[in-house]
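User: Teach me something about this protein's shape.
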Amino acid sequence: MQTENNSNPVSLKKATIINATSKYATVILGLLFSAVLSRLLSPEDYGIVAVVTVFTNFFSLFADMGIGTAVIQNKRLSDDDENRIFTFTLYVGIALFVLFSMFSILLVKIYENTVYYVVGPLLGISLALTTFNMVPNARLMKSKKFLLVAIRTILSAVLGYIAAVVIAFLGGKYYAIIFQSIITALITFLWNWKSTNLRFQFCSVINSVKKIWGFSSYQFGFNFVNYFSRNLDNLLTGYFFGDKMLGYYDKAYKLMRYPVDNLTNVITPSIQPILSDHQDDSRYVMEKYNKMAKFLAVIAVYIGCVCFFASKEIILLYFGRQWEGAVLSFHYLSISLVFQIIGGLSGSIYQCVNKTKQMFWSGIIGSLITVASIMVGIWFGSIEMLSLCYAIGFILNFVKSQWFLGHFCFNESVFKLTAIYIPDVVILVAMSAILYFVPTLDNLLLSLLLKAGIGFGIYFIMLLLTKEYKTIVSVLPEKLQKKLPQWMRG
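Assistant: First, the predicted structure itself:
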């Protein structure tokens, strides 16, 4: 197997910078091309694909099964083992394609639209290609080929979007979205497969799969439980409060998740490939975890505080005044932002220290907390109370997760693990005390700028007083650090 030269190892910081560049580049590309596609396609076109996407997301749980992370984690797999596991994923991908194609018949009956006879199997191809790509992508990440993966991600996204625009311009309607997904998945798979030289082996794959099954089965179980607990709020909101209230809640929730997806998820792809090399050194892993968690905490404090106090401005400016019903939900959900951004690191830590069994049980307890918080919110009878209870559930899950990490991964108390956040709590309290008295102006843009500006002023002063600015400076490239004043580097 091709591996990274140990004399020139990739640091966690460098890997994160590469992943961040790739992540934000694809986000910007997605926004640009989506702006074009939204003018060429109708809401009905998006709706048709959205219906099927709900179910492809569920089938994707079986496409993953934790195999990719297990291949990265297991350093004892031979080339033949990885070839056989790759062969196994080919079988799984084909089976999922057949099952999803058959499932499209049920979709036709449910939604009374024959278009799903074609849409279902086509998206089934994308699902199969994603399954095929599990092992090739894992091998690249295991070999720390982060730059290659980043280039591939951006290029495949560009080609997929270009194809979608061309198809939409030629009148292809919803097929533009479908083929964007297929082409992106196809290019990604072919690129990864060619780069890793994995081979199909027509032989028994059971023994090789058994070598990773203990790890991957708990990973799959965690993903499965987490999927249902994270989607229960939407299902129950639509059932008890109706489509309109669900629309408000869904907008608020997705906007709240945006900082989580674009901060935490930039770091997590790098954690397991880098730290799994130190899976037997829990002190080293804890040190790296604390540094990452501290950085995210410092950034999240400002974002969470502004989102909470400027929730009205953010919602109405971003979505329009017709979405005022989502303001309070976003306001309450923002309470949990800091905890979600930090807590998003825990899954990768469980993986890199071979504790997916503990991650699974943590997920079970977390799901019970989440479901209980949702049910209490539903009982109160409004999406606003649902949002508040859900936010409290996230906070309780953070505390639970810190206890699990400390007890099972680091052999440390939850108090010692969370004590590092005391300065960030001080910053949060100071910002909140000032922003509480800042009025909401009639001009929403000026109001947002006023609150964000005053908040940043207090934030900056508190960074200096608590010396938390050093946390931010420490993650900057070394060349940039050298250009800073000595007192900032000290």
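Now, about its shape. Residues 206-241 form the longest helix (36 residues). Residues 282 and 347 are 15 Å apart (CA to CA). If you'd like, I can walk through any region in more detail.
User: That's plenty for now, thanks!
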